Amino acid sequence: MLSMKDPPPDFQLPPHNEAALEMLREAKNADSALVLAVGGSALATGAMIPAGLLLFGCAYKPLVRIEKIARLEKLTALLLEEFKSEGIEVFPVLKPTDKNPIDLFIRFPRKTHLFISIRSRGDSQVVYNEKREILQVKKKNKQGLTTWKPCPLVELSDYERWLNKNRELFWMTSKEAIKTPAAKVLVLWPPTQADPNHNDHLYTEMGSMRILALRRKGTAFVIQSEEITEFIRAWLARYQ
Length: 240
What we know:
The protein is an alpha/beta fold. It is 33% helix and 25% strand. The chain has 8 helices and 11 strands. Strands 1-2-3-7-11-10-9 form a 7-stranded mixed beta sheet, with helices on both faces. A 4-stranded mixed beta sheet has the order 6-5-4-8, with no helix packed on it. Helix 1 (17-28) runs antiparallel to helix 5 (62-83). The longest helix has 22 residues, at 62-83.
């Protein structure tokens, strides 16, 4: 019997690294009319749909799909350039049942995992309501706050549980799935930013970074998109 350390010859990980990057590019570059046509009607008529769009694009709603895929392509390329020598495995668009996709699952085998959600709420600031333990959105030039639904902090916690239940997709032992240190990260894409006026106790120091660390079903870090490589380097430094 093969152990979890010895996958069978035909075992394949979900699309990751260069293969996934190529599929993201394929999906991003697909004709915009075809992007809008993806769905049951297009499939029924036998339309030629790029494999990357079928695998990644169909995970997102049409109105956000093009921007989301472009952002994932940009970050995947950046992370491979920065961390390939350290054995990074980047898995874009993993789709738990009945949940929004895991935008990026990053694995440094037997060292650490990162779950990354990439979100934008337009020209707004994100505020953490400590009393209610929810994220709220403050739109520029508008009064009041709206509750962010579904809450990205809850989603990130759900993703971690999903991995524990689906570790066989990565030929991962129960011990590795559960015991490997994991970071849950909400990446805000411009022009969306975190409100700079949160209470001091909500921040943590990591390397030279001062980061929002919000405790809702575990701890999730909130960073800007331009901070992602610095954050990963600081996180990795903990486990070198």
